[in-house]
Design brief:
This protein is α/β, with parallel strands linked by helices. It folds into two domains: about 90 residues, Immunoglobulin-like; about 240 residues, TIM Barrel (Alpha-Beta Barrel). β9, α6 and β10 form a beta-alpha-beta unit.
């Protein structure tokens, strides 16, 4: 290449460099934001404005957070607020139902539960029970309490199905259950769903246990003053919601060493299992005061299966506590309640079933009754292996059978309790 060509090449290259520098300068000055002037948004927002006209307002205006590219998440108009019916149904599980099926002896109890495990009441549920021969029987929840009970069912395997009901989603598949031929004295799982509070029932109709038989059997020698503890016995009381609020420190200071607290009762009319509304307060208060604590439950069971339920319910109520004394089944009259209608053999079997269920769960059980009932309405000879709590209101009991605790009056008075209270002596 000659000198002239070389010179032209150099000048061309320098011209190209100068052109590039000029373009860069122009671009830089055109993209710089003049001081005090808002920077236009060259984004989708700007494009939308140009298409809608110069006076259109961006739906994102005022919702951008600095340079955060996720600012649209705060824009209430960005997402479609309306969901499809299918989406809403999938998200709403309040109408989902399940069933819990149990059998104690030749029976079925079906509980209809919501998503929180609570009984669903006020709905006329129906269930279908199909045996191994594909024979189906329908049972109805006539009282709409969420519990369907079927008695006198032949032992065997069954498929239980909850029929569809408007406003709810029932299980898609049946539940298989084995109906037992003979009662097993073991605690029932999930018994808690059967336990009601006193606010859920009519306590005036259901809580009707009566000491009339013990009172009629008393005489003028009844001891109404507290008998202090000694070398072979301890002084105690038994209480329930009838005593109301109790000052347990004053009770202890009065010479009381132990207390038997009512856990609850089975309703005289409906047979509902009801927790005493003062149970937790009484147990925790007595234990904090340093007293030994036991528990009793007033039965209205009419068969062994219900006795197993009662034992299971009491153990469920007592689960938070470490009891030092036994759990007793209170067997007494109820002014014509359902438990008054059974015969001596059935009532004795109820007592045994209650105590055996406790025993099989590692708990100590017993039976409370007055002298008249232990003599006439219960075969007390079959209870010798358990703790017997005798109610007899005279200075010296006439009862000749075994007992380890004696309730000697219902007219006691002690500091910390308003009104009458039962006095007891526990032998050891």
């Amino acid at each position: 290449m000659d000198s002239k060509s070389r010179m032209l090449t150099i000048l061309g290259s320098m011209g190209a460099v100068l052109l590039i520098v000029l373009i860069v300068i122009l671009c830089a000055s055109g993209g710089r934001k003049p001081q005090g002037q808002a920077q236009p948004d060259v984004s989708t927002n700007a494009v939308a404005q140009s298409q809608a006209g110069p006076n259109a307002t961006s739906p994102l205006e005022g919702n951008l957070i600095g340079d955060n590219p996720k600012g649209f998440m705060n824009d209430p108009t960005f997402f479609d607020p309306e969901h499809s019916a299918a989406f809403e149904a999938a998200m709403n599980q309040s109408g989902n139902l399940s069933i819990m099926v149990t059998s104690v002896e030749k029976d079925l109890r079906v509980l209809v539960l919501d998503i929180n495990g609570e009984l669903v009441t006020g709905v006329p549920f129906n269930i279908k029970v199909m045996d191994s021969n594909d024979i189906t029987v329908t049972y109805r929840d006539l009282d709409k309490d969420g519990i369907i009970y079927a008695g006198t069912i032949d032992p065997g395997d069954y498929d239980v199905t909850l029929e569809p009901v408007e406003g709810y989603r029932v299980p898609l598949h049946s539940t298989r259950v084995s109906v037992k031929e003979k009662v097993e004295y073991i605690p029932i799982a999930d018994i808690s769903v059967l336990i009601k509070t006193e606010e859920e029932i009519n306590a005036a109709l259901e809580d009707t246990a009566s000491k009339d038989d013990a009172i009629e059997d008393s005489d003028r020698t009844e001891i109404v003053t507290l008998q202090p503890g000694g070398n072979d016995h301890k002084a105690g009381i038994d209480v329930s919601s009838w005593q109301g609020d109790i000052d347990w420190d004053k009770v202890r200071e009065s010479g009381i060493e132990f207390v038997i607290v009512r856990a609850g009762y089975r309703g005289s009319v409906t047979g509902s299992i009801v927790k005493d509304k003062y149970f937790d307060a009484n147990v925790s208060g007595a234990q904090q005061a340093g007293l030994q604590v036991g528990v009793y439950f007033v039965t209205q069971a009419v068969n062994e299966a219900e006795a197993v339920e009662e034992a299971s319910a009491v153990m469920e109520m007592c689960a938070p506590y470490d009891l030092e004394l036994p759990i007793y089944l209170d067997v007494e009259g109820s002014n014509g309640g359902r438990g008054d209608q059974i015969d001596k053999e059935t009532r004795t079997a109820v007592c045994e079933a209650f105590c055996m269920t406790l025993e099989n769960a590692g708990q100590s059980g017993g039976v409370y009754a007055c002298r008249y009932w232990l003599t006439n309405n219960i075969d007390a000879s079959r209870l010798d292996r358990y703790n017997v709590w005798l109610a007899e209101y005279r200075s010296t009991p006439l009862y000749n059978g075994y007992y380890s605790m004696w309730q000697y009056t219902s007219k006691g008075h002690v500091d910390g309790i308003n009104g009458n209270v039962d006095f007891d002596i526990m032998y050891y």
